[in-house]
Amino acid sequence: MKKAVTLLLLSIAFISEAQDNFRIAFGSCSRQKLPDQLWNEIVSQKPDLWIWGGDNIYGDSHDTTYLAAEYKRQKESAGYQKLMATCPITGTWDDHDYGINDGGRYFSKKKESKVLAANFLGFDKKHPVWQHEGLYNSTSLKKGNHSIHIINLDTRYFRDTIQKVYFFDSLTKRRVYRYEPNQEGDMLGQAQWTWLEEQLKNTDASLYIINSSVQLISEEHRFERWAALPKAQQRLYDLLKHFPNKKVIVISGDRHIAELSKRNFADLPYPLYDFTASGLTHTWNEKWEENNQYRIGSQIIEKNFGTLDISITPNALSVTFRVVGKWGLVYAEHHDKL
């Protein structure tokens, strides 16, 4: 009897500490016409889920027939077909698949473009994405007693205009541009803000991944970023603080680089990470120094995708962030407990 009781106690202890492991891969910026993509490397990671971070094709056109043909080219490529057979796929878009470089709410073909993007991502006709304007959507990944809720934001369809200003860069001796902050501008639109709050309020997950497409935390560079719409950036931070028990990781793309940004807030009981993975087919032609006071480690200027290895027990959640490139080479790795 004593032995049976001991075995029962051991069994209960094992169940209470049961660990569920997830591997999520994500990436962005894929020129569909280039043969040298990273699909084989991604498939070899055996992810539980692939998340598109935007620029899923390079369309840049008001011609929806052309956009549809390029989505077809991407979807029918042998490497992407392997990925589709490996794991579920979700995601959002960015400017080049939206249809116009750095575009926002005034793009005249955004409704038609949304239909093409939603079809490419594989949303069936019963999916909630078809019930509203914009591409924002969500899904959950479940294992055992734990789940991860993925929130794919649309940072294009409703985004207010930001002004591009050209100037002479004394460091590079070139005429370049930067985006000046639009102090009152919005990123998401009220309907999407309401939806986002409901996603956090009305779901119960061990971890939330917000897929933003453009970077949230990195704010010193001159390109598109949440900091170019500072009121919206602060609104998102305040929303996360309103749900301090909902642990969130942000993922982003757009930049043709990879980097990990980390910011601590007094009102959040965990560090907020923004993990950027961008450049499935191409990256910068030349390297330059770029400030980011929140960066962990180095900026990676190589073709890449990101992986998140997430381990969850009833009492702990740990994440390993990896930047992975050609031949499965790991360019950067960072581990933390949330």
Topology overview:
Blueprint lengths: L1 H15 L3 E8 L11 H6 L4 E4 L11 H13 L1 H9 L2 E3 L3 H4 L11 H12 L15 E7 L2 E7 L10 E7 L4 E7 L9 H12 L5 E7 L16 H13 L5 E5 L5 E6 L8 E6 L17 E6 L4 E9 L2 E9 L5 E8 L1
Parallel strand pairs: 1-2, 2-3, 5-8, 8-9, 9-11
Antiparallel strand pairs: 1-13, 4-5, 6-7, 10-11, 10-12, 13-14, 14-15
Helix pairs in contact: 3-6
Q: How many domains is the backbone divided into?
A: 1
State the order of secondary-structure elements, H for helix, E for strand: HEHEHHEHHEEEEHEHEEEEEEE
Just name the CATH architecture. 4-Layer Sandwich
The side-by-side strand order for the widest beta sheet comes to 4-5-8-9-11-10-12
Weakly predicted, low-confidence segments: 4-16
**Distance linking N and C termini:** 41 Å
How much β-strand is present in the residues?
A: 25-35%
Determine the mean pLDDT.
94
CATH fold annotation: Purple Acid Phosphatase, chain A, domain 2
CATH superfamily: Alkaline phosphatase D (PhoD)
Summarize this structure as a short list of keywords or feature phrases.
single chain; 338 residues; alpha/beta; Purple Acid Phosphatase, chain A, domain 2; seven-stranded mixed sheet; 8 helices; 25% helix; globular
Folded structure, characterized:
This protein is an alpha/beta fold. The protein has a single domain (16-337), classed as Purple Acid Phosphatase, chain A, domain 2. It is built from eight helices and 15 strands. The chain has helices at 2-16, 39-44, 64-76, 78-86, 95-98, 110-121, 190-201, 230-242; strands at 20-27, 49-52, 89-91, 137-143, 146-152, 163-169, 174-180, 207-213, 248-252, 258-263, 272-277, 295-300, 305-313, 316-324, 330-337. The strands form three sheets. A seven-stranded mixed sheet has the order 4-5-8-9-11-10-12, covered by helices on one side. Strands 3-2-1-13-14-15 form a six-stranded mixed sheet, with no helix packed on it. The protein has a two-stranded antiparallel ribbon with strand order 6-7. Strand 10 and strand 11 (272-277) form a beta hairpin. Helix 3 (64-76) packs parallel to helix 6 (110-121). The N and C termini lie far apart (41 Å). Residues 4-16 have low confidence and may be disordered.
